[in-house]
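Re: that backbone. Tokens:
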């Protein structure tokens, strides 16, 4: 059953995604503005239209908007649905009133005259729930006035930043966790956009050192927090938003993929130094490190000309077989993977510090930086360092035919 709304009236929305459609007797475009409590977008990425059809929790396809309130960032108070005439000189008053429909409701947007742009509906938060309101506010000044009033830049030659990606599992997180995740995803997107890599898709591999010298990092759950902060990178880069994890010492093991909704449980199950956990005998992996097997195993999964891979390799150093590792990294340079090594804690990283100067490679396929205390590095700095070299490698690898 559909409830008819009149201007200013509101109604409760059922839980779950909703679809907004517009029936119009004249050609018109549908768009959406994601605004905060002050009625402004946070950036141009919060404007959904035909050239930018996605934002967190909102997508536009075939003239219909799909809105999943569970995926809309916590900072967003309202999603405003906008209708714009294709003819900028046209007037809604010259045509039959358009009809806006959202799951369970219908609103005849009447009373318009000279306007060519109208905010038809707004979906808004009310506590933990969402409601819909019939707005019917027209803009005689046109499209530019509308978006300017909402904080969208219309006079810049810069393209709008890409929408921050979301995956369905985010809806299962608490509001607090979704809010933190959204901020981190936005930082990741900002770095990639600045490097002209906002639309890149890549497999994301996470390698974590589990040797005895890492005991403090495990006991203080530093490694847990590392995993938590890598998940937003996977959401932005990987098609499915998943991390492909490995633990290594003398031997290594590939662990089940990390998804956003199960990341915390995954950490409790698999981030250990000793004992049997998740069906894995951690003692059998050894207590000191040997990098050649784990690097070689990942290399064996790569194919020339294949899609790109980003390897995030966390270790406290101790790479003993420097010549062999250097030679393997030279070979790996011909394959579609960038290796970002990160030092955890104060240690002697030796070979890792010289990766950028390593000769004999088709492209520079590796980077390194050390973090004495990763908890003291904010998200903006961490993601800038983690992703700073990956886009440059990607451009070089594409030019060399290493990746597609």
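Recovered sequence:
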């Amino acid at each position: 059953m559909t409830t008819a709304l009149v201007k200013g009236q509101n109604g409760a929305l059922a839980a779950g995604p909703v679809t907004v459609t517009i029936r119009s007797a004249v050609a018109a475009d549908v768009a959406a503005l994601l605004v905060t409590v002050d009625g402004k977008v946070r950036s141009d990425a919060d404007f959904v239209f035909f050239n930018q059809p996605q934002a967190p929790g909102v997508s536009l396809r075939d003239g219909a908007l799909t809105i999943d309130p569970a995926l809309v960032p916590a900072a967003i108070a309202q999603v405003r649905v906008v209708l714009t005439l294709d003819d900028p000189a046209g007037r809604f008053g010259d045509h039959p009133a358009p009809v806006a429909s959202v799951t369970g409701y219908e609103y005849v947007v009447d009373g318009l005259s000279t306007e060519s742009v109208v905010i038809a509906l707004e979906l808004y938060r009310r506590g933990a729930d969402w409601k819909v309101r019939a707005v019917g506010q027209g803009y005689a000044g046109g499209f530019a006035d509308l978006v300017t009033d909402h904080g969208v830049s219309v006079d810049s030659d810069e393209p709008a930043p890409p929408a921050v990606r979301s995956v369905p599992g985010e809806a299962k997180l608490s509001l607090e966790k979704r809010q933190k995740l959204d901020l981190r995803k936005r930082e990741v997107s900002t770095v990639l956009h600045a490097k002209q890599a906002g639309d890149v898709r890549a497999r994301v591999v996470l390698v974590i050192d589990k040797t005895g010298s890492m005991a403090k990092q495990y006991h203080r759950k530093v490694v847990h927090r590392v995993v938590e902060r890598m998940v937003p990178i996977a959401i932005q880069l990987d098609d499915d938003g998943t991390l492909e994890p490995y633990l290594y010492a003398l031997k290594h093991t590939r662990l089940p993929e990390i998804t956003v909704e199960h990341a915390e449980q995954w950490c409790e199950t698999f981030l250990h130094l000793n004992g049997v956990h998740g069906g894995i005998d951690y003692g059998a992996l050894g207590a000191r490190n040997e990098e050649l097997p784990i690097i070689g195993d990942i290399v064996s999964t790569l194919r020339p000309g294949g899609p790109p891979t980003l390897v995030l390799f966390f270790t406290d150093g101790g790479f003993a077989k420097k010549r062999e590792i250097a030679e393997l990294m030279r070979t790996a340079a011909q394959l579609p993977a960038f290796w970002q090594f990160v030092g955890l804690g104060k240690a002697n990283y030796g070979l890792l510090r010289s990766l950028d100067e390593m000769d004999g490679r088709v492209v520079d396929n590796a980077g390194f930086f050390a973090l004495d205390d990763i908890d003291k590095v904010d998200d903006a700095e961490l993601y800038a360092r983690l992703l700073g070299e990956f886009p440059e490698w990607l451009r070089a690898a594409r030019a060399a035919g290493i990746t597609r």
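Residues 156-161 have pLDDT under 50 and may be disordered. Residues 109 and 318 are 68 Å apart (CA to CA).
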